[in-house]
Each structure stands twice: as structure tokens, then as C-alpha cells.
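go over this:
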Amino acid sequence: MHKTNIVNGYKDEAYPPIPTKATRFWRKFFPWQLYRFFVLNLKIMRIVIGGHS
């Protein structure tokens, strides 16, 4: 007797959410990315400088 595996499809919860139009826009908008780059770097520099005092 052969045992067959029955594979059910994935539930909707298993798939990642689809980004909205606004989310896609902000991800591609270069001035916003540049601003976030500098903000992140400033945060990192505060941590680094604070650790060296």
C-alpha cells in the first residue's frame, strides 16, 4: 500500500503584504532616501562617539 502526501495550498497569511502605491513611491524617491541615509548615519555616529567618551 502506497502512502500519498496531500499538499494543500498556502494560506493567505503565508504571503507577504503587497506594498501600497505610496510605499513604493517613498522607496524610490531619491531625496527621501538621501535624507534617511543622513539621519541613519547621524544616529550611528552618536552611538559611536558616545562609546568613545
Q: What stands out?
A: The helical segments are 21-28, 30-51.
